[in-house]
């Protein structure tokens, strides 16, 4: 049987050639996630990306599939139980988003710190006004939930602003550019110190509604909450209550429990909230970075049978 790689996301000819060069002996086919060729996928050993309606073809008992390279960092929409049962290797796109998402995080932070969000609204109404509450980042504390690629890049940038950095992670292990790291069970203790609390977490059974009424009540009064991880990690009603009570001075939100955010949702009308449409990770360099991950993984897959980067632990769900 021919060794086959099928990519379901669009790649340039140059990106395709890079994959072919990294995987000698394999055929490479550019597929289409919107109109997947099931006959082609039925013979694939490696698939890049995923699509609706392909699970039964790829995960049948006699399937040739051995490895899936996710197109995204988040893998919660994939049939994880079936992939695990079939013994399929799964690698994520973790690390692809570090640069664009950290830029959005600091976009939110700087808008709030310098009141630029209200300045834009005032400009639309030709109002010359400042309430004098502008501040700066020097000496402020950023608490970053999630110390992976995005959290680490955010901490590195925070240090350039001479901020204190506190991380929250499952393991609590030290990571560069963090002054201190707490384990997740000490989340309330960590967030109580933050001027900006930044959520970069994936959605797992453990992180669902991790930010809830209890954790928001531990926030420093007048702090800001930023969520660019996954919407379901946050109890939206508890967030709105914390904003209305003034526990939070503002929130920068790129992800939501329901997407698109309904037009009648109360978050839209809250002037202390900045909303982006789950676009923080979008970048014109996205495909190049996925190809970088994939070609590096192909080397180790061909030599040892296992990809070396971003291998998903099905039990941890990331």
TrEMBL record:
Keywords: NAD, Oxidoreductase
CDD domains: 2-Hacid_dh_1
Record-annotated D-isomer specific 2-hydroxyacid dehydrogenase catalytic domain positions: 9-307
D-isomer specific 2-hydroxyacid dehydrogenase NAD-binding domain ranges (all copies): 107-280
Keyword Lipid biosynthesis: no
InterPro entries in the cross-refs: D-isomer_2_OHA_DH_cat_dom (IPR006139), D-isomer_DH_NAD-bd (IPR006140), NAD(P)-bd_dom_sf (IPR036291)
Pfam family, one: 2-Hacid_dh
Family: Belongs to the D-isomer specific 2-hydroxyacid dehydrogenase family.
This protein's name: Hydroxyacid dehydrogenase
Organism of provenance: Paenibacillus odorifer
The organism's taxonomic lineage, starting at the top: Bacteria, Bacillati, Bacillota, Bacilli, Bacillales
């Amino acid at each position: 049987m021919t060794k086959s790689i099928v990519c379901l996301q669009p790649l340039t000819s140059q990106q395709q050639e890079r994959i072919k060069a990294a995987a000698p002996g394999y055929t490479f086919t550019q597929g289409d996630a919107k109109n997947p060729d099931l006959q082609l996928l039925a013979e694939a050993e490696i698939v890049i990306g995923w699509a609706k309606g392909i699970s039964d073809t790829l995960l049948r008992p006699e399937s040739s599939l051995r490895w899936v390279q996710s197109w995204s960092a988040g893998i919660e929409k994939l049939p994880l139980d079936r992939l695990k049962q079939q013994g399929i290797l799964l690698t994520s796109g973790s690390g692809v988003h570090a640069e664009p998402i950290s830029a959005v995080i600091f976009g939110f932070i700087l808008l709030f710190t310098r009141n630029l969000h209200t300045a834009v609204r005032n400009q639309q109404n030709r109002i010359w006004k400042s309430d004098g509450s502008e501040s700066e980042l020097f000496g402020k504390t950023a608490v970053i939930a999630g110390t992976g690629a995005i959290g680490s890049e955010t901490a590195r940038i925070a240090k350039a602003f001479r901020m204190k950095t506190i991380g929250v992670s499952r393991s609590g292990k030290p990571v560069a550019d963090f002054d201190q790291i707490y384990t997740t069970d000490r989340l309330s203790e960590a967030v109580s110190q933050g001027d900006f609390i930044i959520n970069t977490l994936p959605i797992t059974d453990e992180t669902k509604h991790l930010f809830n009424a209890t954790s928001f009540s531990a926030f420093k009064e007048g702090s800001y909450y930023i969520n660019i991880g996954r919407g379901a990690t946050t109890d939206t009603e508890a967030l709105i209550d914390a904003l209305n009570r003034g526990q939070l001075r503002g929130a920068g939100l790129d992800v939501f429990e329901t997407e698109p955010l309904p037009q009648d949702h109360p978050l839209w009308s809250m002037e202390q909230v900045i909303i982006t449409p789950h676009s923080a990770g979008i970048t014109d360099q996205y495909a190049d970075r996925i190809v970088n991950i994939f070609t590096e993984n192909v080397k180790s897959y061909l030599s040892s049978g296992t990809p070396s980067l971003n291998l998903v632990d099905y039990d941890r769900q990331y």
